[in-house]
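Morning F.,

Quick status update on the modeling queue. The single chain you submitted on Monday has been processed. Sequence for confirmation:
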Amino acid sequence: MQNAKDSFYMALRTRLAAINPERTILLRGAVRPGILAEEAEAPFSQLPNDVFILRWLGLGVDFDLGSTMVAEQCEVIYQTCGTQSYGGLDRGRSLSEMDEELMAMVQPFYTAKLNYSATPPAPTLTKVFWDEPGFAPVVVQRDRLSRTASMMVYSYQEQGE
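Structure tokens below.
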């Protein structure tokens, strides 16, 4: 499933850079698109604002098909305090903007599956595909608004995975 998770993350990262090139994060001295895979980063004492965080949850496997299909639930967490220039009073607008960006990032609902342990990444024979995201209600914590969206990500296992 690692190739599928990497491919999903890289597809969303590439799409975000095209949708909103200004949504970035400075991390370990490098400016990157504002999306992170939580499992691939050092632990945060508090999740960063105005960035999408991918968190992988439960795993399922279906052996009854011609090829083994695996599915893992992906939770996308994001939060904002709005902008300083508006004193945070635009936090609702900022969260809505992130909602729209996420909806745009996940379409189309598939991408090529690549093996990122090779340099350059090697294409595989199958694709990664996912469901439409389900959006949880907004959570208010003092001056911060946050939301979680969840979707299932699917992939066929290939030989050697």
